[in-house]
Amino acid sequence: MASGKQTLAGQVALKLKRDILSGAYAPGDKLRPELALAAELKVNRFTVREAMNKLEQLHLIERNAGAGTVVLDYADHASVDVIEDLVMSDSGVVDTKVLADLLESARILSAEIASLAAERRREEHLRRIESTVGKMRSENNLSRLLWLDFEFNWELAVASQNIVPRLFLNTVRGLLKKYMHLLETLWISPGSITEGYEHVVDAIRDRDPERARSLVKWIWTSRHQRFVEAVQERLTRPPPAETA
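^ that's the sequence the OP posted. Answer follows.
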């Protein structure tokens, strides 16, 4: 069970986590005893115990002395830390329903962030937002545009002067780095990424929270649908024909 830089306990925790999130274990099911799992996975009991600690920290299991280890309902107990594993399976299959849920949540959060940015922004915030949109206007490379899109949302979060959205975006940054190679394969036009952003800047410049909120909501609603459709199209697209 060796791969990459992850510890053996981390690999065991990852396997069990994916089993739980995939439904191989249902809420209320009991995991096998540590010794039995260790034998099955060909690791020692201390490795399994460490893996169990990780799963407990993620609120995927509950350990009770004398009653064994019970699988929890992740929807009721887990945090956003499990989103990545829900969106993409171990075999690389994207769950478009979870992806749609994620984008819907991003739409709600982004609209409120834009509203706060319009209300609270300082002049230096506005200059950075304007600069980012200016860069986006002259960029046609999809990968660089996606990073500039992230930067635009980051600057809105900074202008909102609320730390929580920035913490959320730190997680998004890691996912963007990890899956950029997949995003680059989507059939998305560069213009669809920047559409409407200049109007958002105008609303923030005018300190108009309601207009900023409605514009970002409209942008995300339109983009949300196109993005999910692009992912679905990629999933159903036949592989390229092999050349001799």
